[in-house]
Amino acid sequence: MKKILIGLLIASAVSSCDIDRLPYTSMDEENIVSNPDAMVTGTYAQLKAWSDPMHRLGEYAGDNMMIRGSSTDAFYEFISYARTPNNYRLQNFWDSGYKAIAQSSNVIKMFAEGQSPEMDNKIGECYYIRGMMYFYLCRAFGKPYYQSPETNLGVPIVNGTPEDVFNDLNLPDRASVKDTYAQAISDLKKAEALMTLDKGAAYASKGAAQAMLSRIYLYMSGTYKNPNAEYARLSVEYADKVINSGKYVLLGREQFMKYNTFRPEDNKETIFAVKRVASEFSGDDHYYGIGGMYSNIGGMGWGEMYSSAKYIDLLNETGRNDWRPDHYTIVDARAAFIEPTYSKDDAGKYTTVFRFIKQDVPKKAGDPVTLSYVQAPATINGNTVTCKDGDNVYTLTAVNAAQQTYKIAYADGKTYTGMIDYYISLNRAYPQFYIVKCSREGEESQLHSPVISRLGEIYLNRAEANAKLGNYGAALNDLNTIRNRSIVNGGYTSIDAASASKLIDKERQLELAYQAERSYDVFRNGDPLNRTYPGPQKQFEDILPTDFRVTYFIPQDAINSYPGKLTQNPTSN
């Protein structure tokens, strides 16, 4: 009886399925063929391991978050842009992605189409997973599409275990970015055609394939300055399919503010999410998982990463979001996913402070200029507001007294703007602006099912693609659909060629924060990334979209074990 080897490129399907377990490295073909559900379920299981490093690569390299200090954990390279090929989290991302590709490819090869709608749907789900993996791998390891996709390298296209694993193991080198995207698109279009059943947001579906195609074509649509009209039109076309299907509904403002608490299957806006359940989590997972780095809830989580001052400023741009328990006012619904850790004094009272960000004087010549938070105890006496920092007492000048924002003429000769607030407890020198968008699903403290696609993104995809086509009225309608959901009467009156990129980019940052999209969004449109806010990152460094560090190195272990040539990314500009 023929054996199908699993240890090399493919993950064991029986690891998460209720079928008889066979020897660890092999599984009888007859048992596989009689259990297609086991193979498909095992393919989904790979996404659970993949989704953790996927999030860290995409989000930590952006400007929505900051960390309390440097770390010996491998993820710190994603934050610091100190790229190395010897990174176990990067290796996990690569391995899990290719295991999902291998397992989905083997299902596609084993089972014939046309047997039944149910079987076709299963095959379609595997095409979706494979196409999605190629896209996510390529955007991490390949340069942005607008930069010579014909010659820049993507990732190897390896669709399944070779027929003869002992004599046919000379696998291909990396395909071009263009060809890798073409493979992803081909798979997703095949998935779109095969899937006719909708089993809920925890499973791939026709809508999920269309949503991913809308995003991929957007990534191919060039920059605002040099758009590609063909791909922009295709992004609009696939966004139309999703939006006009009527299968998905934007949550209302109040429900949206609780988005993180809903299970994927209970959320009408979620198109596809990697489903996690509490039974999969041990205590350590609650600490080391995505949400556990952003917060500590019920004693679970490290809470070492916080919302960046840049993101907080964006949330407050239309009007102050006041998180104080006795003043709680949310202007931008996205602010509901931020929870500052206000602390009380020994008497059980909150301390009123004036919090602002100041520029520090370098300690010695050659040291970089840095920014830091100040929380100076403040006193309000009628219309007079003062604060004390060290031996200095300052009288503040109102910027917006109703929202308690003020200016301070500081001792260093500079003027800074800040706000009256309660004291937020510090981790090292940083106020803890906890992020809970990746926590609290189903009332489990750090349970989170990473969202891959949701309807809010699709409206923003269509807005950007239409703007690149010069259809500014249509772009404005979609942009305001999202903006008015989060900010009551917050819509823009107009956008044009001069303002479209700024306004749409800002809304994508606000809306898609902590969904692993931000760094890719910046670079694919040819923009630099700037993280001028407190934190251990290089605060005044512009990371250009052409910088070699925008792409991650191929993991060295993958190169060493690869049966064939596997070309590394450039190590300098």
In whole angstroms, how far apart are the ends? 53 Å
Radius of gyration: 25 Å
**Helical proportion, percent range:** 25-40%
What fraction of the residues are assigned to beta strands by DSSP? 5-15%
What number is the mean pLDDT? 92
Spatial strand arrangement across the major sheet: 10-9-8-7-13-12-11
Sheet of most strands: 7 strands, antiparallel
Number of beta-strand segments: 19
Domain SusD-like N-terminal: 46-218
Protein name: RagB/SusD family nutrient uptake outer membrane protein
Domain RagB/SusD: 268-570
Organism: Sphingobacterium zeae
Short description:
The protein is an alpha+beta fold.
Q: How do the strands and helices of this protein lay out in sequence?
A:
Elements: E1 3-5, E2 26-28, H1 29-33, H2 36-60, E3 65-67, H3 76-80, H4 88-110, H5 117-141, H6 177-194, H7 206-219, H8 229-244, H9 253-256, E4 270-273, H10 283-288, H11 290-294, E5 305-307, H12 309-315, E6 338-340, E7 352-360, E8 370-381, E9 384-389, E10 392-395, E11 397-400, E12 405-409, E13 415-422, E14 426-427, E15 430-431, E16 433-435, E17 451-454, H13 455-468, H14 472-486, H15 500-512, H16 518-524, E18 529-530, E19 542-543, H17 556-561
Antiparallel strand pairs: 1-2, 3-5, 4-17, 6-16, 7-8, 7-13, 8-9, 9-10, 11-12, 12-13, 14-15, 18-19
Helix pairs in contact: 2-4, 2-5, 4-5, 5-6, 6-7, 7-8, 7-13, 8-13, 13-14, 13-15, 14-15
Protein name: RagB/SusD family nutrient uptake outer membrane protein
Organism: Sphingobacterium zeae
Domain RagB/SusD: 268-570
